[in-house]
Write a structure and sequence with these properties.
Helix content: over 70%
Distance between the termini: 26 Å
Number of helices: 5
Shape: globular
Length: 129
């Protein structure tokens, strides 16, 4: 079972509302027709999918499997962070609003960034209806 209320009390939590605000702010940036910006966003989504697949599987791995896959999980997480930062930097270079990044805080708060990956996958999935 997942206790969302308890999760929100954690210092490094990212609420559904904040993540939706970040996601919608990103889509305002994507109103721009820059092909490279859209390619970078696709890389963000693809890396979020890969990381979230691993993160979900993590719940069902044995202790040995977790030990075997820990470096890969970290690598997938790093890739998502790198891709999101590249997307942000491109928008910044273009003079687009990047205030959404402040809500993620520092990249050192890796759990928040990883949680955003999950929310992105969730929102993209629902948006596809």
């Amino acid at each position: 079972m997942f206790d969302y209320i308890r999760y929100l009390k954690e210092e490094d939590s990212l609420s559904f509302e904040d993540s939706l605000d970040i996601y919608n702010s990103i889509f305002k940036v994507l109103d721009n027709q820059d092909d490279y910006l859209h390619e970078l966003w696709e890389e963000v989504v693809n890396s979020a999918l890969a990381y979230c697949k691993m993160r979900t599987d993590w719940n069902y791995f044995s202790k040995e499997e977790k030990q075997d896959k820990d470096k890969l999980r970290t690598s997938l997480h790093n890739t998502f962070i790198i891709n999101l930062k590249a997307f942000y930097r491109r928008g910044e270079q273009m003079g687009l609003n990047g205030e959404w990044m402040e809500k993620l805080r520092l990249p050192e708060e890796r759990k928040r960034w990883g949680d955003l990956a999950g929310y992105i996958v969730c929102f993209e999935n629902i948006k596809a209806r």
